[in-house]
Amino acid sequence: MHPMLNTAIKAARKAGSYIVRASEDINSLTINTKRVNDFVSEVDVNSEQIIIETLKDAYPNHAFLGEETGLSHDAENLWIIDPLDGTTNFLHEFPQYCISIALLQKGEITQAVIFDPNRNDLFTASKGQGAFLNDRRIRVSKKRKLKESLIGTGLPFRDFKHLKTYLSMLEEVVLNTQGIRRPGSAALDLAYVAAGWLDGFWEIGLSKWDIAAGGLLIKEAGGIVSDFSAKDNWLESGNIVCSNSLIYENFIKLLQLHLTDDLRG
Ligand code: IPD
Ligand code: CA
Ligand code: CA
């Protein structure tokens, strides 16, 4: 295993143990509101600190982009961290949340870890080495027909400027697939696409820390990840569509029926 992946796993497991302990007494937590429907608890902040300290110990010159602390400095090696993806779920004791850690080297994602501390599911990938769940190789699904596919998504909940567009896409997908799931942790949704448990996923307006690790997992599991124009700008734009290669074309075509100009990038 690549030593950098190993260090990221160590960081994710440490943060995971802390999050599970904290989940036993949710009512005692300090919670602040960043924006409407956007909360940050002391758990998000402490988890990020645990992850960064662990990575820094091994790689003192690397840079960090964390959801809670922002960008540390510019460097060739940049760790992109979501210390708790699914904070709203966590605060409601809905057991669907995770830690997401990715390494970006010269503009390319090379290492990825997504850890679900409730199920002890550890999803990992190193560029060119395949994707794994707890040491078992995973691959995207083999579904050929959109009509038989289960699709994940994320609903707008704090920024509603694309709500109408999103709802038109949702209607299209409802009418043309077997079903939709909105579990509330984008990083885990992407890991589920990599594992073949979801056949595809789309969301508008995500952040780098939501998707960097999941994007590599899906590619390494044989899937396709793109923006809504079928281009590679998904990490920058945060507009993401992904699936196995068999349904991808029909899936993105459905979404494109409702695409507005500002979502083409
Ligand atoms: C959120 C979750 C959610 C997605 C949001 C994200 P957070 O991350 O991934 O599923 O729909 O867009 O912001 O705020 O819980 O880290
Ligand atoms: Ca997130
Ligand atoms: Ca988060």
* Biggest β-sheet description: 8 strands, mixed
The helix content is 25-40%
**Amount of beta strand:** 25-35%
Radius of gyration: 17 Å
Mean pLDDT: 94
Decide which structural class fits the backbone.
alpha+beta
Which ligands appear in the coordinates?
Answer: D-MYO-inositol-1-phosphate, calcium ion
Beta strands, count: 15
What low-confidence regions span 5 or more consecutive residues with pLDDT below 50? none
- How large is the count of helical segments? 8
Order of helices and strands: HEEHEEEHEEEEEEHEHEHEHEH
Q: CA-to-CA gap between the ends?
A: 35 Å
Largest sheet, spatial ordering of strands = 4-3-5-6-7-8-9-10
Looking at how many chains there are and whether they match, the oligomeric state comes to single chain
Shape: globular
Provide an overview of this structure.
- The strands form three sheets. An eight-stranded mixed β-sheet has the order 4-3-5-6-7-8-9-10, sandwiched between helices. It has a five-stranded mixed β-sheet with strand order 12-11-13-15-14, with helices on both faces. The chain has a two-stranded antiparallel sheet with strand order 1-2.
- It is globular.
- Helices cover 35% and strands 27% of the residues.
- It has helices spanning 3-23, 42-58, 87-91, 163-176, 186-195, 208-220, 234-237, 248-256, and strands at 31-35, 38-41, 63-66, 70-71, 77-85, 98-105, 108-116, 121-126, 131-133, 136-138, 150-153, 179-181, 200-203, 224-226, 240-243.
- The protein has eight helices and 15 strands.
- By secondary structure, it is an alpha+beta fold.
- It binds D-MYO-inositol-1-phosphate and calcium ion (2 copies).
